UniProtKB/TrEMBL annotation:
TM ranges: none
InterPro entries: Glyco_hydro_beta-prop_sf, MPT-1-like_LmxM
Domain of life: Bacteria
Entry protein name: DUF1861 family protein
Organism: Sporolactobacillus sp. Y61
């Protein structure tokens, strides 16, 4: 299937297109217990760990950025920490299944080394792998200053690496992609050298990948986010999707799939984060719908039902 990509569209243009499409429905808050006053947000979609269905989530106090990743199981309708599961000093968890292994990633923050930036942080992405949650061991890390790195198994058994570059190469934030043969080849240098995908974001806006879905035809459905600042410095994050041919780097146009107003009202970590939806994961239900899991306003986690945004792309051959 040949993908067609035009010029980069702004959030305003994508929002206008979204308003003319079928809207998501049945929003529901995901309630976490047993962590006191900590918020849980920026979750993964549920996944299997042995006999348990598990969600990984970022947990922190409302006025803090120092986070921990917990693994939660459902008990009587509420999500509680999985007994005996490890806890990681990381932000924004993501998971993947690659060559039979569970891969967990998250963002590690540390104090900025420059004396004039002592109240700021630097960050990098840390990767773990194992047969299950209990056996997860660190095996790689990304370049300093890069979030939103995602891994996925490809049709030939190799590994796709989605990256998010900033600065000289990526401006405010642009997505790149490269392939490696095995997880052993994942290094900061390989990640940093990934070529950018063309014509996705204007220079005034940014985006990143959050999850990849491999289709039977070899295409990748990418769940991500696109974002911008308004004139008052408030952040606006929108969940989006696009499709990538991992062999040619051809991509489809971006489509926004939801806005904050589609979800239930709730608290915000800060006033400038009111209009933030951070993509966590998408469960494709097989009946033409999908369940989308996300963090809302950096304070809560929610899920919402929508038309499967990837269905049309997996029905054709490359």
């Amino acid at each position: 299937m040949r993908l067609k990509k035009g010029v980069a569209k702004t959030c305003t243009e994508l929002l206008r297109e979204f308003q003319h499409r079928e809207q998501p429905y049945i929003a529901e808050k995901i309630v976490f217990k047993s962590l006191g006053n900590m918020d849980v947000y920026n979750i993964t979609a549920p996944f299997k760990d042995g006999n348990d269905t598990v969600i990984a989530g970022r947990a922190e106090l409302r006025n803090d950025e120092h986070s921990q990743i917990y693994f939660f199981i459902n008990k009587d309708g509420f999500w509680v920490p999985k007994p005996g599961a490890p806890v990681f000093e990381l932000q924004d968890p993501f998971i993947a299944r690659i060559n039979g292994l569970l891969v967990l990633g998250g963002v590690e923050i540390s104090p900025h080394p420059h004396p004039d930036a002592k109240h700021k942080f630097i960050w990098k992405t840390i990767f773990y792998k194992g047969k299950n949650i209990a056996s997860l061991k660190k095996f790689a890390e990304g370049p300093v200053g890069m979030k939103d790195i995602r891994l996925t198994e490809l049709k030939d058994g190799s590994v796709g690496v989605l990256t998010r570059h900033q600065g000289h190469k990526g401006g405010l934030g642009k997505i790149g992609f490269t392939k490696i043969r095995t997880l052993d080849e994942l290094t900061p240098e390989v990640i940093d050298s990934a070529p950018l995908l063309a014509k996705q974001f204007t220079d005034e806006e940014w985006g990143g990948a959050n999850e990849a879905h491999l289709f039977p035809n070899g295409l990748l459905g990418i769940l991500g986010h696109i974002a911008h600042f308004d004139h008052e410095g408030n952040r606006h994050y929108y969940p989006m999707v696009f499709v990538l041919n991992p062999d040619t780097l051809e991509i489809s146009d971006i489509s926004i799939i939801a806005t904050r107003s589609n979800f239930l009202k709730g608290p915000s970590k800060r006033p400038d984060l009111n209009d933030v939806v951070f993509s966590g994961g998408l469960i494709r239900e097989g009946n033409g719908t999908a369940t989308f899991f996300a963090g809302t306003s950096d304070a809560e986690a929610q899920k919402i039902t929508m038309k499967d945004p990837f269905r049309v792309y997996e029905q054709n051959d490359l």
